[in-house]
C-alpha cells in the first residue's frame, strides 16, 4: 500500500531543502577561504581559520544529514504513515542547535574542530572560558536529540508496517523464508540508518556529556582513548549515514527515469545487512595510529574497511550502471546527477580503502589525503544526490523546464570537484598535514589549484541553487504530482 | 632501503624491490587511486554512451548478474591478497629486537615537542616513546624532502612507540599531525641525523 505525501510534509521537505542549499553555498565559501589562506592568497589569523574550519566541518556534515533526512522522509512517506509534524519538530531542533553552535564558534571563539577531540575542549575552556565549548557541545547535543527522535519514530513505523527492523532488513529473504521482492529500498536503507545513526548519536551523546561535565568540574575525567573511540563512533557513522539516507533518491529516481524496477532481492538485502554491520564497526580505522588500541581491533578496522567497499562496488553502484544500461533513458538534470553521484561515491571509496590499510595509514593518516577522500564521496556523492533531489522535487511538486544551463553546470561541478579532490589527494601524496592554518612554500601550489577549483564549484552550485529557487516558486501548484496520482 | 619481509612469495619480493620499500606507499596510493578512478569513469562513460539505446531489462539483468559474480570474486581476491601482504608488516610492535633500540622520550605540549634527545646517528635503531601532557597531538616524522616517514598519536595518559632507523643523514622534522588548537601548525621541531657519532658537521 502506498500513501499520499501530505501537504505539510511537502512544505517541511521544501524548507529542509532551502536551508540545505543556502548552507552548502555558505560552507563552500568557507572552504575556499581556507584554501586561499593556505595558498597564501589572502591572510586571515589562525584563530579565525580554525573557527572557519570548525564551522565548515560541522556545517557540511550537519547539512548533508539534514538534506539526507529530507530525502529519506519524502520517499519513506510513500510507504509509512508518517506524521510530518515530527519532521517539523526536528527542523526546529536543528535550527536551535545550529544557532547554539554558531554562537559557540563565532560568539565565544570555539575552534576545537567538529570532532572536538577530548580533552581539547576543556583545555581550551581553561584559557578562553567555558562558554564557547558549552554552546558548541550543547548545540550538537540538541541536533543529535532531534535526529534521535526522528529515528525512533521511523523505527516505530518500520516495525509496525514490516514486523520488526530485522524484517525491513530482509532477514526473511536472506534466510529463504520468503522469495521475490521484499520491502522497498527506501525502507531498507532507512532501517540501516536508524540502527547505525542511533548508535552513533548515543556514542556522541556520551562523549559530549562527559566533555561538558569535565569542563564544569575538571575532577570528572574520562579516558582520552575511550573518548576517541566514542567520538569516531559518532563522527564516522554519522558522516557515513548521510550517504545512506541520500541514496534513497537514487533508487527511486533512477528507477523512475528508466522505467525499470529497482527492488530489493536477496543480494540487495545481504548488501544492506553487511553495510549495517560494517558501518558500525569500521570507525576504528580512525584509530590506526593509536598504538594502544588492541592490535586485533585495528586489523579488524583494516579488513572490514575493505569489506565495507563491497556493497557499494558490487551491488549499489553496479546496480545503477545496470539499470541505466540500454534503458532508453531521456536524461534530465536530476537523473544525470543521480547517476553521477554513484560515480562520486564509488570513486571516493578507492582512496578511503587505500588509507584504511594500516601500513599506508602510517604515512598518510591526517594528511590531506583524508579530506581528499571524503570530499569525493561527500561532495560528488551525497551533495550531488541532494542537488539532484532538489530538482527532482521541483519536477514532482512544481513546474520546471530543462535548459542548457543544466548540462553546463553539471559539467562545471564535476570537473572542478574532481580537481579539488585531486588537489587534496595530491597534497596527501606529498605529505601535507591536514588542518594546518598556514602552509609551507612547498605545499602552497596545491592549495591555489584547490582554491581555483573551489571558486568554480561555487559557481556551479550557485546555478543549481538559483534553478532550484526559481522552480520552487511553483512547488505545490502541480496538482497531478506523482504521489497525488497514486491516491 | 629495501626491507625483506617473510612473505615467501617470489613475485611479491620482486614487487617489494621494485617499489623500494615503505617510503613509496604515497606514490602507490596516488597512482592506484588515479588508475582506478579513471577505470570507474570509463565504466560510467560507457554505460552513459549506451544509455540511449533501448533493450529489454530482463536479459540485461541476467547477464549483468553473471558478470557480477566474477567481478565480485575478482575484487574479493585482490582484497585478500593485499590484506595478506600488508598485514604482515604492521608498524605496531618490534618485540624481537626491543632491547637493541635506543629509547627516546617525546612529549607533545601546546605548542612544542620536548624530546630527551634530538641528535641521532645513521643506522642506529631508535624507539620514539611518544606521549602528551595536555591534549592529543600527532607525532609525524618528516625527512629532508618533507616526506612523512612515520607517525603515531601523542595522547595524554598513553605512550606509543614508533621505531625508526635513519638511513640518511640530514635535517628531519617533527610536525604535529593531530589538531590541537590554534598553534597546531607551529608545532614543528627540527632534529639532526649525522653520519657517525662524532661528525656533527
Ligand atoms: C567548494 C567546495 C569545498 C571546498 C573548497 C572545501 C574546502 C575544505 C578545506 C580547505 C578543508 C580543510 C582542509 C585541511 O584540513 O587543511 C575542508 C575540510 C572539510 N570539509 Fe570541505 N570543502 C568543500 C566542500 C565540502 C563538502 C561538500 C563537504 C561535505 C558535505 C565538506 C566537508 C568537510 C569536512 C567534514 C572537513 C573537515 C573539517 C576538519 O578537518 O575539521 N567540504 N574543506
Ligand atoms: Cu571514517
Ligand atoms: Cu597539533
UniProtKB/TrEMBL annotation, chain A:
GO MF annotation list: cytochrome-c oxidase activity; heme binding
GO cellular component terms, A-Z: membrane
Gene3D superfamilies reported in the protein's UniProt record: Cytochrome c oxidase-like, subunit I domain (1.20.210.10)
InterPro entries: Cyt_c_oxase-like_su1_dom, Cyt_c_oxase-like_su1_sf, Cyt_C_Oxase_1
Keywords from the named record: Electron transport, Membrane, Respiratory chain, Transmembrane, Transmembrane helix, Transport
A GO BP entry: aerobic respiration
Record's protein name: Cytochrome oxidase subunit I profile domain-containing protein
Keyword RNA-binding: no
Keyword match Transport: yes
Extent of the signal sequence: none
Domain Cytochrome oxidase subunit I profile: 1-487
Organism of derivation: Pseudoneobacillus rhizosphaerae
Pfam families noted in UniProt: COX1
TM segment ranges: 12-36, 48-75, 87-111, 131-154, 187-213, 233-254, 266-283, 303-324, 336-354, 374-393, 405-428, 448-470
From TrEMBL, chain B:
Top-rank taxon, per record: Bacteria
Pfam family, any one: COX2
Entry keyword annotation includes Membrane: yes
PANTHER family cross-referenced by the UniProt entry: CYTOCHROME C OXIDASE SUBUNIT II, NITROUS-OXIDE REDUCTASE
Cytochrome oxidase subunit II copper A binding domain mapped to chain residues: 99-201
Protein name per its UniProtKB record: Cytochrome aa3 subunit 2
GO molecular function term, any single one: copper ion binding
TM spans (from-to): 28-49, 70-92
Catalysis performed (reactions): 4 Fe(II)-[cytochrome c] + O2 + 8 H(+)(in) = 4 Fe(III)-[cytochrome c] + 2 H2O + 4 H(+)(out)
Biological function: Subunits I and II form the functional core of the enzyme complex. Electrons originating in cytochrome c are transferred via heme a and Cu(A) to the binuclear center formed by heme a3 and Cu(B).
Keywords annotated in UniProt: Copper, Membrane, Metal-binding, Transmembrane, Transmembrane helix
Subcellular location: Cell envelope
GO cellular component, one term: membrane
Amino acid at each position: 500500500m502506498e500513501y499520499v505525501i501530505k501537504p505539510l510534509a511537502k512544505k517541511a521537505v521544501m524548507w529542509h531543502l532551502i536551508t540545505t542549499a543556502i548552507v552548502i553555498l555558505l560552507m563552500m565559501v568557507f572552504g575556499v577561504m581556507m584554501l586561499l589562506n593556505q595558498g597564501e592568497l589572502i591572510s586571515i589569523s589562525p584563530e579565525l581559520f580554525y573557527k572557519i574550519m570548525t564551522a565548515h566541518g560541522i556545517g557540511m556534515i550537519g547539512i548533508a544529514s539534514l538534506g539526507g533526512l529530507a530525502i529519506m522522509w519524502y520517499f519513506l512517506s510513500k510507504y509509512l504513515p508518517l506524521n510530518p509534524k515530527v519532521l517539523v519538530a526536528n527542523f526546529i531542533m536543528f535550527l536551535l542547535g545550529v544557532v547554539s553552535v554558531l554562537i559557540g564558534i563565532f560568539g565565544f571563539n570555539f575552534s576545537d574542530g567538529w570532532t572536538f577531540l577530548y580533552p581539547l575542549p576543556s583545555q581550551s575552556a581553561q584559557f578562553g572560558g567555558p562558554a564557547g565549548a558549552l554552546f558548541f557541545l550543547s548545540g550538537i547535543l540538541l541536533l543529535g536529540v532531534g535526529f534521535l527522535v526522528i529515528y525512533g519514530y521511523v523505527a516505530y513505523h518500520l516495525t509496525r508496517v514490516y514486523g520488526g527492523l530485522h524484517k525491513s532488513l530482509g532477514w526473511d529473504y536472506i534466510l529463504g523464508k520468503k522469495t521475490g521482492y521484499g520491502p522497498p529500498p527506501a525502507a531498507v536503507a532507512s532501517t540501516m540508518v536508524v540502527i547505525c545513526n542511533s548508535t552513533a548519536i548515543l556514542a556522541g551523546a556520551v562523549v559530549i556529556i562527559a566533555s561538558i561535565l569535565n569542563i564544569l568540574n575538571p575532577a570528572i575525567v574520562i579516558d582520552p582513548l575511550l573518548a576517541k573511540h566514542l567520538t569516531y563512533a559518532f563522527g564516522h557513522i554519522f558522516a557515513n549515514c548521510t550517504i545512506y539516507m541520500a541514496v534513497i533518491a537514487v533508487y527511486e529516481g533512477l528507477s523512475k527515469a528508466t522505467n525499470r524496477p529497482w527492488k530489493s532481492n536477496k543480494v540487495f538485502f545481504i548488501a544492506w545487512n553487511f553495510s549495517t554491520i560494517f558501518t558500525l564497526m569500521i570507525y576504528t580505522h580512525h584509530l590506526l595510529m593509536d598504538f594502544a588500541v588492541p592490535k586485533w581491533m585495528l586489523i579488524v578496522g583494516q579488513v572490514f574497511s575493505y569489506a565495507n567497499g563491497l556493497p557499494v562496488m558490487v551491488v549499489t553502484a553496479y546496480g545503477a550502471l545496470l539499470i541505466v544500461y540500454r534503458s532508453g533513458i531521456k536524461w534530465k538534470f536530476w537523473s544525470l546527477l543521480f547517476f553521477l553521484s554513484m560515480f562520486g561515491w564509488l570513486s571516493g571509496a578507492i582512496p578511503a580503502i587505500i588509507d584504511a590499510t594500516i601500513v599506508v595509514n602510517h604515512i598518510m593518516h591526517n594528511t590531506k589525503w583524508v579530506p581528499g577522500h571524503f570530499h569525493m564521496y561527500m561532495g560528488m556523492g551525497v551533495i550531488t544526490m541532494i542537488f539532484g533531489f532538489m530538482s527532482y522535487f521541483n519536477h514532482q511538486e512544481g513546474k520546471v523546464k530543462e535548459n542548457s544551463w543544466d548540462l553546463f553546470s553539471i559539467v562545471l561541478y564535476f570537473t572542478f570537484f574532481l580537481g579539488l579532490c585531486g588537489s587534496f589527494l595530491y597534497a596527501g601524496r606529498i605529505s601535507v598535514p591536514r588542518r594546518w592554518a598556514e602552509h609551507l612554500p612547498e605545499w602552497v601550489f596545491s592549495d591555489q589549484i584547490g582554491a581555483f577549483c573551489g571558486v568554480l564549484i561555487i559557481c556551479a552550485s550557485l546555478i543549481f541553487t538559483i534553478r532550484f529557487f526559481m522552480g520552487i516558486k511553483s512547488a505545490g501548484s502541480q496538482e497531478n504530482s506523482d504521489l497525488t496520482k497514486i491516491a | 632501503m629495501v626491507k625483506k619481509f617473510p612473505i615467501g612469495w617470489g613475485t611479491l619480493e620482486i614487487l617489494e624491490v621494485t617499489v623500494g620499500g615503505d617510503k613509496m606507499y604515497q606514490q602507490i596510493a596516488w597512482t592506484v587511486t588515479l588508475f582506478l578512478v579513471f577505470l570507474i569513469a570509463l565504466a560510467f562513460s560507457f554505460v552513459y554512451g549506451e544509455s540511449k539505446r533501448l533493450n529489454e531489462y530482463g536479459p540485461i539483468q541476467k547477464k549483468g548478474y553473471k558478470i557480477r559474480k566474477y567481478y565480485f570474486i575478482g575484487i574479493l581476491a585482490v582484497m585478500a591478497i593485499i590484506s595478506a601482504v600488508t598485514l604482515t608488516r604492521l608498524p605496531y610492535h618490534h618485540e624481537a629486537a626491543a632491547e637493541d633500540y635506543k629509547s627516546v622520550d617525546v612529549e607533545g605540549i601546546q605548542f612544542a615537542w620536548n624530546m630527551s634527545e634530538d641528535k641521532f646517528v645513521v643506522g642506529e635503531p631508535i624507539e620514539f616513546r611518544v606521549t602528551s601532557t595536555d591534549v592529543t597531538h600527532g607525532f609525524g616524522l618528516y625527512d629532508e624532502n618533507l616526506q612523512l616517514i612515520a607517525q603515531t598519536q601523542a595522547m595524554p595518559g598513553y605512550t606509543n612507540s614508533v621505531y625508526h632507523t635513519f638511513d640518511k643523514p640530514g635535517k628531519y622534522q617533527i610536525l604535529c599531525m593531530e589538531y590541537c588548537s590554534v598553534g597546531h601548525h607551529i608545532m614543528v621541531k627540527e632534529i639532526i641525523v649525522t653520519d657517525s657519532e662524532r661528525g656533527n658537521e
